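During the reporting period the student researcher (J.K.) took over the structure-prediction task from the postdoctoral fellow and processed the backlog of single-chain submissions. One of the processed entries is reproduced below for the supervisory committee.
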Amino acid sequence: MAAIPGIAPPRPIPIKDRASILFIEKGQVDVLDGAFVVVDRNGVRTHIPVGGLACLMLEPGARISHAAVALAARVGCLLVWVGEAGVRLYSAGQPGGARADRLLHQARLALDPDARLNVVRKMYDMRFGEPAPQRRSVDQLRGIEGARVKRLYEVMARQHGVKWKGRRYDPGDWNAADLPNRCLSQATACLYGLAEAAVLAAGYAPAIGFLHTGKPQSFVYDVADVFKFETVVPIAFRVAGEAQRGKQPAAGDPVGEVRRGCRDKFRKTGVLNRLIPSMEEMLAAGGLKPPPATEEAQPIAISEEPSGDVGHRG
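J.K. obtained the following structure tokens:
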């Protein structure tokens, strides 16, 4: 990825044109002979096409070099350091960073009570396919949404024959949760990684949320929840049901099966094509005009425009 004299360095591939997500459980992530690779304990290299990934999740058994972090940042791949199976997020490396004009617009929407309520109502509409109840506050809508989500979990558990005791898990103890909750945690971790990559690539701040507040990934949760029940939640319950019935291959590695199912679902539903446009649609519902970018503003780090002909970089 070093620049060649006289030739412009390649631009990052748009998020919508990338593969979704990859987990690395064990190995040294490095750049060797110009390639982004994972080296196992036997010295075997596995090449990772980092420029074509939206998000790379590093579990406790993974180590990464400075050169690999720098290359991932250059090509716009989000690095996320997670706990076992992604149940806990420790840190994330930005694939571009927030733009001042977009960050200020996002903050202004979040601080204006009417605008924030309009954004939350739009999120509700996009998530459930119907307008939010009238004359409800953000807190009331949060309660209504929570009750609906609880019922949806119960319905899906019955559909897939899952023994469901409710959404219960301890972020600090992966094994304390039952199988359905571990599958659900794994599925949502995959979606949250993608959503955070899109939020950062578009120039917004993950922490400035509307329905969710006070957490480092509040806006990530807002965006991801719009897509959760059409993508990853059904996969988690399907795999958990198969595993509880002893069906292979889910019974052997249900968490891995959830990951693979989410990967395939992301590809089939084209969720990477929709994340940033949906984000813009949510914020536009706030009714406030975005501020113009200053002349000194940096361009969007990862444009949604194609970088060239199909298969062409730069």
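The committee noted the following: The CA atoms of residues 78 and 232 lie 20 Å apart.
J.K. will present the remaining backlog at the next meeting.
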